[in-house]
Every structure is written in structure tokens, then in C-alpha cells.
Amino acid sequence: MIFKTIFTWWNKHTLGTYLKTLFFGKFVGKDEFGNKYYKNNKDNERWVIYANEIEATRITSDWYLWIHHTTDKIPSNNEVKFSWQKKHSENKTGTKDSHKPIKIKKNSSPKKYETWK
Questions:
Q1: What is the DSSP string of 44-113?
Q2: Contact at 8 Å (CB) between 40 and 22?
Q3: What is the pTM of this model?
Q4: Assuming Cys at both sites, which of 45, 64, 73, 90 could form a disulfide with 40, CB separation 3.0 to 4.6 Å?
Q5: Contact present, 39 and 23 (Cβ < 8 Å)
Q6: What are the residue boundaries of the structural domains of the chain, listed by start?
């Protein structure tokens, strides 16, 4: 376990990231997936420690804007969303939950438009 932590970046964080977070990181917040967000006041640097496997699409849009310095407002989980907004979901490409378009038979072509009556 300690070997994986020191030498691999795909298992949570490396030793360097751990030390940087320990000595220079100021905890800012946590999202609904359990990812923890930190910042460094000296260099205005921001980073994330993922809760499970490292997957960039697990960052919600609010935290994405914050981590990329688009906004300085720290997101909170209590913010009310509009009724038309969907909950965030990660990229499902390559999994059994990925989007599969409807297959059309070769002989039949769908109408691209409907004529007026």
C-alpha cells in the first residue's frame, strides 16, 4: 500500500501531493462525491484530492469553475438549483451505462423532417 502511494498517481495521490497538502494546503470544501478541494494562499494554487479513483469528470461544474479560476466563489452543497437542472454525472463512455444510439436498419431511412398538412 505504501509503495503504491509513493510511486503511483492513479491511486488517490502521490507522496508529493500528500506533503504539499499537509504543509501548504488549506481545506476549502468537499463536494457530493467526497472529493476534497484545497488551495494555497501564497501562489493562489488550487487542487483536488479525489475520494475514489481519479476521474476528472467527477468534478461538478461549480467546483470545475472554482478550480480553474473562472470564479472565486466557493461552491456549497446547499445551493438551490433550478428545477430544469440535472444532477451531475460522470462520463460513462466505455462502461455499460454509456449512451447507445438507436440502430437503424440499412433499408429504412428515417425522415429528416415532417411535411406540413
A1: TEEEEE-SSS--GGGS-HHHHHHHTTS--PPP-TTPPPPTTPPPP----TTSTTS--PPP--SS----SS
A2: no
A3: 0.70
A4: 45
A5: no
A6: 2-67
User: How many alpha carbons fall within 13 Å on the CB side of residue 22?
Assistant: 7
- Size (the chain), residues: 117
Interval 51-99: pLDDT, tens: 887 888 889 889 999 999 999 999 887 777 888 888 888 888 888 888 8
CA distances from residue 116 to 101, 110, 113 in whole angstroms, order as listed: 28, 17, 10
The rounded distance, in Å, linking the Cα atoms of 30 and 91 is 20
Between CA 116 and CA 110 the distance in angstroms is 17
For residue 83, give the amino acid letter.
Answer: S
In sequence order, what are the beta bridge partners of 48? 37
